[in-house]
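Q: Structure tokens for this one, please.
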Amino acid sequence: MSIESIIKDMLSQLLAVNSSAMRKRNLLFWGVYTRLPAQINSWKIPRSLILSNERQTSGQISRFLQMFDVQQYLTSLRSLTLLEPKLEQAKQILSSPLPSLITLNLTSSTIAYKVTGDICKMVLCGLLSLKKCSLVFNDRVDIDSLDQTLDNMKYFTCKKVTWEDLVNKLAKHLSHIHYLDVEIIPSNISVVLTTTEQSIPTLIPNLLCLKLSITKTTYDEIQFLLKGLPHLKQLTLKKRPHTSNDEMTFVQGNYWEKLFSSHLSALTHLEFYIEICHDQPMNVVNLNVLLLPFENEYFLKRGWQFMLYYDSKVLCLHTLPYPESTFSTTLNRIQSTVGRAHGTHNEIVKHLHVYNIGKKRFYYPNVESLYVENSSYDHKFFFSVKKCLNYRKLKLLKLHESDDDVQMMDSTTLSKLLYTSRQLQTLDLSIVELIELTQQFTHVTLCKRLSQRIQHLILSDYYCTPNDVDLFVETFSKNLESLDISVNTLSDCCEILKTVLRRMRKLKNLYVTFGHDEKKIEFNFDTWLRENTSLSNFISDIDGKCLNLWLGDKGPVVKSSDFSEFSDSEDFF
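A: Here is the predicted structure, written as tokens:
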């Protein structure tokens, strides 16, 4: 594949109108150089665009800005998604003419609180046609600079705001909003709440759908907020546990019934995922008593069903079906009750995190990613896990052993799992676990199945050495497309690159994280790769202490060891 073909392939996806189709491919920009062929100027200007500096696409935004004049190129854009842009990149793009922009999604973990106000004002006050906006920062959002009502805004997501900013500031600017999704974080400001029903203000009169994520926010504060939303039809409330002083009010049905029946008569859709810390052990009898107020005529008439469970000092109340796509559990300590509901309704769970041995059996039929964490038991632990899900839908498996002396899975178990899990493509574990499970890559059947199944390999927790790579490179040379490893030194990295790039002929992306021995990476990988490998089509990008390398086609695939004489037919467990 030529450089021009790589660029054309990238642009055919980058300029696609359908943003959902673009999102499916992780390496949108992997084949781009800083120059464009002349015919690019005649290509269609996009209406939808996703630009990402996330882990597997770092450097994408800077290359886009080098290649295009954003002052002219984005004028017809209607939808824009920016993932992990640097501050100056975000400002450059958002300050360009965007007269037709209707939807903006901005996510950044590096933009600090002191400059979030500038971004907010640039977006919310400067983009006059904007109707849907999502601003997700790792720090609190500064909304003090907002000075006008956002008349056109209908859908707004904001992470993170204080309760005081939401009620006293943001609500005033979003009087026409229909959908609001916010994460409320604590502040040090004490607030006096209105106690009389007559003086409760209407906060957002047109709001129809509210999604709230909270930790320390009190029940009284949530009650005050909800009483000011008279036309609310849909409510989603997620609460994470805080301390042993968490309020039991959050899991008491009589309080919610009184609030909903008195102030939210239009409410038709309810989702709860409420976790509180609770030191006193709960058995099924206790849970049934607590669940009883949620099973009266008010809740049943609206079709709202609930489940309570107690798991490792955490008491959880959630609606049915289970409202979260990710579920974390110890399995063994669960006491639960579903009242009059039938089954446990875990169909929505796509990502399951399980730790420690379990006796309680729940079934998750649609899990696509499984994270198994074992802290104290041997490989028999996995026989409990296997009964919790349908392995035929599994796409990602992550293994983490807290105790280096204990192995949660043996070679035969992993081999059978790989045989059954026909969709499994991603494996995340330490290099130490991988060497142990494969018996230093001498377990022929397991190595064969790893070679056939795994396209994405993440080696976490431990540094890889050149000797480690020499062991596993033959097994994964056939189908591996992406490799994520950690190394301790730059010299180790260079030795590993020589081996990996020579042997893994289908590799498209290599991500290397450097250890503490390398304080700052100042190394010209472009020059080194051209001088020490046969690569011609590639892009390398250094971001902090990480190397991200994208690769074009490298010609015919070199055959790995022939395993064809071994049968691949057996039942799982």
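A few notes: The chain is about 25% helix and 20% strand. The CA atoms of residues 549 and 556 lie 20 Å apart.
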